[in-house]
Structure formats: structure tokens, C-alpha cells
Design goal:
The complex is a heterodimer of chains A (353) and B (317). Chain A has 353 residues and is of the alpha/beta class. Helix content of chain A is 38%, strand content 15%. In chain A, strands 1, 2, 3, 4, 5, 6, 7 and 8 form an eight-stranded mixed sheet that branches. Chain B is built from twelve helices and eleven strands. The longest helix of chain B is centred in the middle third of the chain and has 20 residues. Chain B is globular, with a radius of gyration of 20 Å. Classes of the chains: A alpha/beta (353), B alpha/beta (317).
Chain lengths: 353, 317
């Protein structure tokens, strides 16, 4: 029995193009070269420096854009931008990570990797939107939050956790758009909302394909396999219920036709705001809670307690038989083997960024 | 940067089930003695990792732990295969650790104070957080709210479980949303960070305690030192990302030796009592489990919102 996953299927896929990836439930074939290339092409699209970034998109699809700066605590993070803008009749607060489109700007923008002050600026703007009764629209495009000393010192993890918390309880509608790279916690920190939209070539993952490959395959060259295995394309994320709507990109991709991309995205955002704005806030918040509450797939075997006892080695059994006083056969199960915690055969399987 | 290797060479010149070598001071420790001292090196104070049962035994009053949702098991939603299929990794972890997943939760008492407690176990796939761990933390928080018990979460984790992809990432949102509701309802939460608490676990529930405690020298980090060093070529200062570093930067209230942890919690629980129920909250509690929480009326919210904002502001200070 798999909880959650089935219930979380998307409600509306009218805007989605048929995705070339295999449907969920089939064993992935990470060795299928054609599939690998198709997925990797999307990863590269998502990372294309010419792809329209947050400010560009906002200026193309919204009017009366006013950028706001600073977290009022430490500084202003150029990797995360925000302010006021107007989508047709909807005045809104926008927030998004900002990459640069050439080297110099990219360095200035820290390649779209926010520090803690970026997320604290986001929270400040979320709170402002709540107070003014304005909806929030976020644009996600980041490899991840910045993994450096300065960012650890100022508590980037704490700021991500707080931002997730602020969004989950924010008493105003939130529309989230994954426009490019949705990299791990640094992306999720501004991607908790009532509806999650993605551009067709956007990706969303728990760790970068390179990071996943270097941990699980022990080689960054396996990034393509990792990308396939993680099902990080917008289409697959939609099938999993993590993303609600996928917007087809025109021509060769968003970088090829930024205006048309912005037009399609803008129309979708307006339609979503039209639907969300009249809703009662209490219902909206309960639905938002429920949406993330359902996320996850697990089974419940129902049986209780008693962890399986470890199979003992011959030596252990002999020692027990020889009756070292503390336990004979049939005695209650011993404590869990303490050494296992320090004595791993393999490096921990974990996300690292 | 001395990072602790998660494995040791196999060949050891002594029976491994009798003696353990302290990785910090190289002292040979007799295992029975090590268990008695809560797996802390008598000589240098190195804290070894603690399995979930030992942790529960250490913190809770004898025989008070009642496990809940023991039957939750991970499935393989992505059909994830790297060098081994995910189900095989799960099976291997279950056999070698004797537990079903990397967290266990239930209710118990600390010095007579009832608590909802969730403990993670690093031995199970690096304590990584997949759907089951996220679900258990969330259920612990929801039960803490419904039963108005203080919540204690003891973290030990390398972060989100990659084999579950973005479903693992979504556990950050799921757990944090539940903790926000807990805070709004005035029920306190203590986060205990042990070695290691990193990645998605640190960037969600572990960072959000009303009181944050950490064990000495525990690795607590958003990104592992290897990642920081690798991706941005920064040289990292000594003691970087250790519990004391977090303390110095204001993210941890106290660094507590394992031997003192129970007493410190006991002292805190004298203060961390669920606030007297407000009207809005009591309706939710009476509605009972699950759905009742979701339909909690948020209309009498002036004071609740003020609370939530204080929480956010406090973090910035």
C-alpha cells in the first residue's frame, strides 16, 4: 500500500506537453542512452545562461515593477531579488533567485546561490505581502543555497527552515514557478505555495545530478545516470504530484523566445491568481498544509514494535551458549548493536548540498 | 579540516566486539565500560554515535516509551537504481541495523514530564530522511499538538535521502509546516542535534527548536565540508561546522555533554509547558486526530499571528 502518491496526482495537466519520459512505476533504465540524452538535454536547458531569469521574466510579463532590497539585518543579497509588480489586475509581491546572463553579472549574482540574508529578505517581503493583502509569486532558479563559510556562519540552513515555515502559514495566496534549476533546499525555501508551476525544461531535485553521482556512483561522470534516476524533469515531477502545472516552452526553449515564454507564463499566473484570490484564507491555508502533508510514499505494515534481531555470527552464538551469565537462548532481544553507528561499511547515503 | 570518516578499516588487531578504539585519542576502550559511560570516551570525552534504543533508554524514564507507527516502511517510489537498487539498500540496512527506518517516535516521560519524542538513528542509511522519517517527525508534531505534549526530536542524519528524490525534499516542507502549527498552538519543541545533523534535516526541523541543544563536537552543517571545499574552493576554518561553532554564532542554546543531557532536558521541561489553551486551539484539539488539525479555525488569530511573527523575528536577532 502506497500512501500519498496516488492522492497527489495533478489535477490539471492541460498545459502540459506529453513528456517523453517513461511513466512512473516503471523501472528506470539509467543505461538507456537515448533517455539519458533526452533528460540531460533538459538539465542543460535549465542551466542555459541565456535562459530568461527572474527579473527578465518579471519585466516581460508584469508592469509597474519596483524592486526592494535588503533584509534589514545584515545586507542585501543580489542572488535573491524581490519587490512589487503587477500581473494585469493583480498587484503582487514577487521573489526569486536571480542568475546572471554573462560571467560578470553571474559573479555579482553569485550564480543565483543565495546566502541567509537572501532568504531573510524573502521572509520580510512575504510578511509585507501578508500585511498588505497582496498575493506572492515566487520564481525558483538556483543550483542551491550557497554552501560556504559565510553562509554557514549566518545560518543559511536556519533561514531556509524559517522561510519554509513562513510560507506554509502565510495568510495570502502564493504561486510558485520553477523557471530553471530547482536545486534542493535552497529552491524549496521559496517554493512552498498553493500552486507550483514549472516551465517545461525546468528541473527540480533533492541534490544536483553531479552531487548525487559523486555520492552514489562515486564519480561525478555519472551525473547523467543520476539525472535519469532522480526523475528531475518537470514532466516527471508533475507525474509525482510535486508540480501541478507544466508550461510548454516555445521554439528551441525559453532562451530562444523569451517574450513568448513570458506571455504563456504570465497568462498562467494571472489565471491562477484569478482562481486563488477569491478563496477564503482559512481554506487556502488548510489546503496548502494538506498539499505538503500528503507528500511522500511509504507502506504501513501495521505490525508493531520488536525490531528484527540481528543474525548472530557463529562466534557470538557460541559465546552465548557458553553461558556468559547475561543471556541464554530465548532471553529477551539484546540491545541494538552499538558499533553499527560508527562502523559503516559505506559512506552515508545522503544529500550533501 | 578533520572530518570523521563514517567507516573504519576492516582489519583491526583486536576483537572488535570487545574493544573500541577512540578515533580522537586512540585510547582502547573496553566496550562494556563504553556502554556504561553512554558511549563517551572516558579519557577525552569523544562522543560516539548512539543507537536509537540506547538514546531512548538514556533520556526517558524506565519503561515509559510507547512506540507509535512502528510499522511504517519505506517504499521505492522512483524505481531508483544506482549501483544497487534502493529496495536492496533498504533490506540491507534493515538487516544490519534491526530497525525499519532511520527514525522512531512515540511517547514517554522524562522525570515524570510527558513528552512526544522522535529519535533518529544514523546507522540506518546515514540517518537519511525519506518519506518515513518525514512522516514520523510530522506525526510526532501533530500528536504533540493534539495531546499537548512538549515535543523532543533528537537528530542524527546526513540529510535528505536521495533515493526518494524530491519526495524526500518535500519532507522539509511537511515537517516544518507541522512545527509551525505546533508553535502557533503554544506547544514547545526542543531540538537536540547530535553527530551529524546536516543537509535537509538541519535546514528543516532540527534548526527550529524553541530551544536548540547540541552534543559536543557534533558536526552540524548545511553543506558538508567536502562540498564547500569542492564546489567553491574555500578553506574552512578550524572547528568549522561543529556544535561549538554553531553555539558561537547563536544557533544553539547550549552544548550539552551526553551525561548531562537528560538533566538539562528535565530542567527545561519545567519551563517548556504547553501554554494554556486558547479558544481557537481547543476546538482543534477536541476535533481529535488528523483532519481535526487541518480544519483548525484560524479566525481568532490576532494573538497567534503575533506569536508566529515573534518566532520569525527572534531568528533574525
Amino acid at each position: 500500500m502506497v500512501d500519498g502518491l496516488n492522492a497527489a496526482m495533478p489535477a490539471d495537466s492541460s498545459l502540459a506537453e506529453a513528456s517523453p519520459e517513461p511513466v512512473l512505476g516503471h523501472q528506470h533504465r539509467v543505461d538507456d542512452e537515448a533517455l539519458r540524452e533526452a533528460v540531460w538535454a533538459r538539465v542543460q536547458q535549465a542551466r542555459n545562461v541565456k535562459r530568461p531569469h527572474t527579473l527578465e521574466l518579471v519585466r516581460l510579463m508584469a508592469s509597474e515593477v519596483i524592486e526592494l532590497h535588503g533584509d534589514r539585518l545584515f545586507g542585501d543579497d543580489p542572488a535573491l531579488v524581490g519587490g512589487f509588480c503587477r500581473f494585469r489586475q493583480h498587484r503582487a509581491v514577487f521573489v526569486g533567485q536571480q542568475k546572471g546572463s554573462e560571467v560578470e553579472e553571474n559573479v555579482a549574482r553569485n550564480f543565483g546561490m543565495p546566502h541567509a540574508e537572501g532568504y531573510r529578505k524573502a521572509m520580510r517581503l512575504f510578511r509585507l505581502a501578508e500585511r498588505l493583502g497582496l498575493p506572492v509569486v515566487t520564481f525558483v532558479d538556483t543550483p542551491g543555497a550557497y554552501p560556504g563559510a559565510a553562509s554557514e556562519e549566518r545560518g543559511v540552513a536556519e533561514s531556509i527552515a524559517r522561510s519554509i515555515g513562513v510560507m506554509s502559514g502565510l495568510r495570502t495566496p502564493i504561486v510558485c514557478v520553477i523557471t530553471g534549476e530547482g536545486g534542493s533546499g535552497g529552491a524549496l525555501a521559496i517554493a512552498v505555495g498553493d500552486v507550483i508551476i514549472a516551465l517545461e525544461n525546468a528541473i527540480y531535485s533533492v541534490i544536483s545530478p553531479e552531487g548525487c553521482a559523486s555520492i552514489l556512483w562515486r564519480s561525478p561522470e555519472a551525473a547523467q545516470q543520476a539525472a535519469v534516476a532522480m526523475r528531475l524533469t518537470a514532466g516527471e515531477q508533475q507525474a509525482m504530484g510535486v508540480i501541478d502545472l507544466v508550461i510548454a516552452e516555445p521554439a528551441e526553449g525559453a532562451h530562444d523566445a523569451p517574450e513568448e515564454t513570458a506571455r504563456r507564463l504570465g497568462a498562467t499566473i494571472v489565471a491562477q491568481l484569478d482562481a486563488l484570490m477569491p478563496r477564503a484564507l482559512d481554506d487556502l491555508l488548510d489546503d496548502r498544509y494538506d498539499r505538503f502533508r500528503r507528500m511522500g510514499a511509504f507502506a504501513d505494515s501495521g505490525t508493531s514494535v520488536t525490531p528484527r534481531q540481528e543474525r548472530q555470527s557463529l562466534g557470538d552464538r557460541l559465546r552465548l551458549l557458553l553461558g556468559s551469565g547475561r543471556g541464554m537462548l530465548g532471553a529477551e532481544p539484546g540491545p541494538l548493536r552499538p558499533a553499527a553507528a560508527d562502523d559503516q561499511d559505506e559512506p552515508p547515503l545522503r544529500e550533501d548540498v | 579540516m578533520p572530518i570523521k570518516l563514517p567507516f573504519r578499516p576492516r582489519r583491526q588487531g583486536f576483537p572488535p566486539d570487545l574493544w573500541t578504539k577512540c578515533p580522537t585519542c586512540q585510547e582502547m576502550l573496553y566496550n562494556k565500560q563504553l556502554e556504561k559511560s553512554l558511549r563517551v570516551c572516558d579519557k577525552c570525552g569523544h562522543h560516539f554515535r548512539l543507537r536509537v534504543d540506547a538514546r531512548l533508554a538514556q533520556l526517558l524514564d524506565h519503561d515509559t516509551f510507547q512506540e507509535r507507527d512502528a510499522g511504517l516502511e519505506s517504499v521505492d517510489p522512483l524505481g531508483f537504481v544506482d549501483q544497487k537498487p534502493y529496495p536492496e539498500r533498504l533490506a540491507a540496512a534493515r538487516t544490519s541495523t534491526g530497525i525499519r527506518d532511520a527514525a522512531m517516535w512515540g511517547t514517554g516521560a522524562i522525570g515524570g514530564h510527558g513528552v512526544a519524542i522522535c529519535v533518529m538513528d544514523f546507522a540506518f542509511m546515514g540517518g537519511s530522511m525519506g518519506s518515513v522519517v518525514g512522516e514520523k517527525v510530522t506525526r510526532a508534531a501533530e500528536a504533540a499538538l493534539a495531546e499537548r505534549l512538549p515535543l523532543v526530536v533528537v537528530s542524527a542524519s546526513g540529510g535528505a535521502r536521495m533515493q526518494e528524490g524530491t519526495l524526500a525534499l518535500m519532507q522539509l516542507a511537511k515537517t516544518v509546516a507541522a512545527l509551525v502549527r505546533l508553535a502557533e498552538a503554544g506547544v514547545p519543541y526542543v531540538s537536540v542535534m547530535t553527530d551529524p545533523t546536516t543537509g535537509g534535516v538541519f535546514a528543516s526541523y532540527a534548526a527550529l527548536g524553541d530551544v536548540n541543544l547540541a552534543e559536543p563536537d557534533a558536526l552540524i552543517a548545511f553543506a558538508g565540508a567536502r562540498v564547500s571545499a569542492g564546489t567553491i574552493a574555500e578553506t574552512l576554518p578550524d572547528g568549522f561546522q561543529r556544535a561549538e561553532f554553531l553555539f558561537a554564532h547563536g544557533f544553539v542554546d547550549q552544548v550539552v555533554k551526553r551525561a548531562d543531557l537528560r538533566d538539562v532536558l528535565l530542567g527545561l521541561l519545567g519551563y517548556l509547558r504547553p501554554a494554556p489553551q486558547r479558544r481557537a486551539v481547543s476546538t482543534a484539539a477536541q476535533n481529535g486526530s488528523g483532519n481535526g488539525l487541518l480544519s483548525r479555525p484560524l479566525s481568532t488569530l490576532v494573538d497567534v499571528r503575533a506569536d508566529a511573527r515573534t518566532g520569525a523575528e527572534r531568528s533574525r536577532g
